Amino acid sequence: MVLEKEFKTKIGSLMDECLIPHGIQTHECSKEHWKFNSEDDFKYGHKAGVVIGIVLGYYIAKYGKLPVDEDLTEMTEMVELRTEEIKKSFSDIHFFYKV
């Protein structure tokens, strides 16, 4: 199955919404627990995961099944084309830490 034009348009719209800075505050993300070296890299991965999750969730909701390999590849490529926007948008994620 090749992704429909309408579906691609909807995915683009969902990604646009996801990349708007919202000042997200998320649970504590301990460096010791997650073993990350750079908080920025971790936040970028977190935001990229959110975008991919939203795209996959929409696919599953629309078609009632997991994507076939070709569709998953195409959706992943659509997200990868937005890499620079994702990098710019992760700055809206603020971790809070226990004191």
Q: Explain this structure to me?
A:
The chain has a domain at 38-99. The protein has helices at residues 5-18, 31-34, 39-63, 69-80, 83-89; strands spanning 24-26, 93-95. The protein is built from 5 helices and 2 strands. Helix 3 packs across helix 5. The longest helix is centred in the middle third of the chain and has 25 residues, at 39-63. The radius of gyration is 15 Å and the shape is elongated. By secondary structure, the chain is mainly alpha-helical. It has a two-stranded parallel ribbon with strand order 1-2. The model has no long low-confidence stretch (mean pLDDT 82).
Label this structure with key terms.
99 residues; mainly alpha; 5 helices; 63% helix
Strand content: 5-15%
Q: Number of helical runs?
A: 5
The structural class is mainly alpha
Summarize the helix and strand pattern as letters.
Answer: HEHHHHE
Shape: elongated
Rg over C-alpha atoms, rounded to the nearest angstrom: 15 Å
- Report the oligomer: single chain
Characterize the biggest β-sheet: 2 strands, parallel
Mean pLDDT across all amino acids: 82
Indicate the percent of residues in helices.
Answer: 55-70%
Main-sheet strand order equals 1-2
What is the terminal-to-terminal distance?
51 Å
Give a count of the beta strands, DSSP E runs of length 2 or more.
2
Show unreliable segments: none
